[in-house]
Structure formats: C-alpha cells, structure tokens
Write a structure and sequence with these properties.
Structural class: alpha/beta
Number of helices: 5
Helix content: 40-55%
Strand order of the largest sheet: 2-1-3-4
Largest sheet: 4 strands, parallel
Shape: globular
Distance between the termini: 8 Å
Oligomer: single chain
Order of helices and strands: EHEHHEHEH
Strand content: 5-15%
Radius of gyration: 14 Å
C-alpha cells in the first residue's frame, strides 16, 4: 500500500496550517496510519520562518488535546510539489499563490482544505488579527475537514 504525504499551507504558517498539521497528524496517529500518511505544513510567505506557531493557536489547540509546540514555520517551495501528493491551501489567496509556484509536471491534488469539510465553508479564516473565538473557529473547521480528508486518502490508497 502506497504511503501519501500531505502539506497544509496558509500565509505565514503560524496559525491555520500548523493547526491543520497538528490536528490531522494526531488523527492519523490515533487511527494507526502514521506509516501510511505523513503530514507537514508551510506558508506562502517567509515572514515567520523558523518560528513556533502563534501562542494563541497553540493555546486553543492544547485545550482540545493537540500539541503544536514542536512545529516550526517554513515557506512553501517548488520542491514541495515533488515531495507531497496532496497540497491543501487554507484560502483562495493561498491557493492562487500555490498555483503560481506549481510546476507543470505536478500530478498530485492541489486544492482547498475545506473541500473535504461537511460544514459548507470554503475558506479557513485567518484568526491572526482577531480574538480567541477566531482560533476556536479554525479548530472547528480543521477538525471537520480532517475527517473528510482522511476518508479521501484512504479511498485513494485502496
């Protein structure tokens, strides 16, 4: 059975994509699928490269049992399209930036993360300039989409 690699991408890689990374990675581990599905995250901008996730993201995640403190921000790069099978953007701006970076030979899945959600939302809103409720909303959306993404990946593997 082929293993798959998933990359979550937002703007700065300190709020939305590390939250998705941590939540989805824990889901994969809980289902004993870590040998088959690898997870990473990145940002389209490099402002926060090498930094830990936003403290508010880490705090909101920790309240729900997710640990993000080992993650470090990095910028998405062209090589990611050779390394990852599924690259998921948090919003349409991130997706547009990724499409511009995407080499023509990429045959994997490039799209919006919330395409896998039941909620009906299309974009994960950036909570950076808002209050605590924004980080809770990100977690709600990420948890919803993670289940759908896992079902998609398992379907691809069978």
């Amino acid at each position: 059975m082929k293993s798959q690699k998933v990359l979550f991408v937002c703007l700065g890689n300190i709020c939305r994509s590390p939250t998705a990374h941590g939540v989805f990675e824990q889901l994969v581990e809980q289902r004993a699928l870590a040998q088959r599905i690898a997870v990473d995250s990145a940002g389209t901008a490099n402002w926060h490269a090498g930094k830990a996730p936003d403290s508010r993201s880490m705090q909101a995640a920790r309240k729900r049992g997710y640990e993000l403190n080992a993650l470090r921000a990095r910028q998405a790069r062209v090589q990611d399209f050779d390394e990852f099978d599924v690259i998921l953007a948090m919003d349409n701006n991130n997706l547009q930036d990724l499409r511009e970076l995407c080499p023509s030979h990429f045959t994997g899945h490039l799209g919006l993360f919330l395409d896998f959600a039941k909620d009906g939302e299309t974009e994960v809103p950036d909570p950076y300039h808002g209050g605590e409720e924004g980080f809770e909303r990100v977690l709600d959306l990420v948890e919803d989409a993670s289940e759908g993404l896992l079902a998609f990946l398992l379907d691809q593997q069978s």
